[in-house]
Amino acid sequence: MSFKRAILIAAAAMILPGLAQAQTSAQFPVTVDFDDNNPGSVDVTLQCNTGQPLSQTQDITEAGGVTFIITNFADGEMDCEVSVTDAEGYTPSAACEFTAVADQSSNECDFDLSVDFVNFEVTKVWIDENPGFDNNTFASADFSCSGVFNGATHGNFNGNVNFVGDEATSNIGLRPHWDGSTVCTVYEAPVNGAESDASDCEAVSVLLGSDAACTIYNTRLYEGIPTLSQYGLAIMAMLMLGVGFVAARRFV
To answer: What's the CATH number where 158 sits?
Structure first.
């Protein structure tokens, strides 16, 4: 074998494997499905252990998916994973995993996105300095929320919350509308011996992926001597006793 021919054979051995590898290709079609039909978008990412590129991220909507393409990998030796990497307010279905990806294959991945519950916390505060205040005082309030996702459509969500004692809290779990239109109001029925002083629980905006809170303040009302402390009662008794002594001396 001539020296020139040996050089050509060696060069071909180096080039041909590279050409074969460059011809490998795999597709990864990805779609998302919001259970509340949100027209917005989320980020999906394809990550592989080999091939080109190793990582890709695309912003996609329910109306339009994306197809990732990977090239330059050894047939059957590439592993890849597709995941949702930015979906605030939603929980996506599990990531798609593909092992030993074949050349010229199409590896489909479909994500379901479920609306997350958020917490609307209502707090009851009693304005009351009387040491005889009953820490087990019970109170209740009604709430009405609009634009709440119920698993099929958006509508109203009504109910009631209960409080026991001072600075008691009650939580309302709900799934807000994607357009930011969810609003809740908490209102009280009349409470015996109390009056409502202030509340920031009217038309509270509840946003996707974000908890909300409000507070109702009440003052307990007291009438007559029972509103006095023990010291006050003792002073009142001494005053009444003193008046009795003065009256007795005048009539003696």
So the answer is: 2.60.40.1140
